[in-house]
Structures are given as C-alpha cells and as structure tokens.
Write a structure and sequence with these properties.
The structure is a single chain. This protein has one domain: Rossmann fold (3-Layer(aba) Sandwich). The protein has 7 helices and 6 strands. By secondary structure, it is an alpha/beta fold.
Length: 218
C-alpha cells in the first residue's frame, strides 16, 4: 500500500489457491474452496492497489515436492520480465504459521533473486535482471498456542499505521479465512501498525543497518 501511494509498480505472485486450508468457508469441495480463494486473492490485491497479481497452479501443501529448478525458473522469468528493484518473500522459518509451503516459497524466491542476475542461469528466459534488494518478512511476536517460528532479526521497521485500515480490509476480503483472523484479532490490532523485514541480499557488500523504508536510498 505504501509503495502504491508512492507510485511504485507492484507485483504479487501466489503459488497455490489454498485448497488444503483448515478454514474452508462455505465451500463443499477442494475445487470450490480453491475457486473461492482465487477470488479472495484478487479482491485483496485490488484493495491494496497491486499493479499485477498472479496465482499459479501448484498444489496447496505440496510445494516441498515440486521440482526446485523448474519452480525457481518461473520466478526468474517474472523477475526478468517485471525488473523489480525490491523483492519480498517469506522468511525461511515459514512465517507466523511455520507453513512448509511458505518455507519453500522463500527458498524458490531466494534462488530466483540470484539466478535472475546470472547469465549462466536460464539464458533462454531473457536478459538478466539484478534486483537491488531481497527482503524476508519477519516478526516481532508469536501467536499464543501455536508452534513458534524462528524468525530472522529485522533490519527494517515499516510504519504502516496510516494504511492499517486498508490492511484489515484486505485481510477481511479473504472471507473463507475470517475465523483465523477473528481468533487473533486482538494481536493484529496491537501489532498491525508496524511490519518487520530482514534485508537478505543485495548486489553490493555492505553492513547490516536499520532502515524505515524498503526503498531507502534507491
């Protein structure tokens, strides 16, 4: 949202349509849930003013078994096509819910960030593109009663209070997942004003420093 306000073009790539989710809304089959969650994903991206969004066809809960090179190549292609300055993904812990799919998305994206800049990797996928920063999403707290992740220490503290209402609106667009949001509503309300990220890679050697903007200095 902050990026959109600043006129920055944004792209979101989602790997699965969530057919294996525990919360299933009014769906009566995995296919119906998948169709519902595709619509929810699109609706939330619209609320957040995402420029481009895409949902791939990988099977929910099975990303650890996907062909690593082929899957990373899909992201290499998109990085070379869209030419982002900044790439965001999950931390390798799998995020707040320690989801194996999220760990794999982190691994695929990390490889693609580096491989998109290498002339030795997938030369048929177009000219190389060297993005300036790779960030992992991380956290300053844990949800009670759930397995605790092992998050990376953050290097960016992002103040999102002025767009917090739209952030909640985007959450609520995922109507099939509202029971999960309601369960942790109090934690979201207390913590949602800040987001934390770890600078994981750049093209240039540099010390880790604290920042308040993902695009600082670019």
């Amino acid at each position: 949202m902050l990026a959109a306000e600043a006129g920055v073009e944004t792209t979101v790539v989602c790997f699965t349509d969530g057919q294996a989710a525990t919360n299933r809304g009014a769906s009566t089959s995995p296919a119906e849930l998948g169709a519902m969650r595709r619509e929810e994903f699109s609706a939330s991206c619209k609320i957040l003013d995402v420029t481009h969004h895409e949902l791939l066809d990988y099977q929910d809960g099975q990303l650890e078994f996907a062909n690593f090179s082929e899957t990373a190549a899909l992201l290499v292609k998109r990085i070379r096509d869209y030419k982002p300055d900044v790439v965001l993904t999950f931390g390798s812990d799998g995020g707040m819910n320690t989801h194996a799919d999220h760990t794999m998305v982190s691994a695929f994206t990390t490889a693609a960030f580096h491989w998109a800049a290498s002339p030795k990797r997938f030369p048929a996928l177009g000219p190389i593109h060297k993005a300036e920063r790779l960030f992992y999403n991380t956290s300053s707290f844990f949800f009670p009663g759930r397995p605790a992740p092992m998050p990376a220490p953050w290097t960016v503290t992002l103040d999102v209070r002025r767009v917090q209402a739209r952030k909640f609106e985007a959450f609520r667009a995922h109507t099939s997942q509202l029971p999960l949001m309601e369960k942790f509503q109090s934690y979201f309300e207390k913590r949602a004003g800040q987001e934390f990220y770890t600078l994981a890679a750049t093209p240039h050697p540099q010390p880790a420093v604290q920042m308040t903007d993902l695009f600082e200095g670019l």
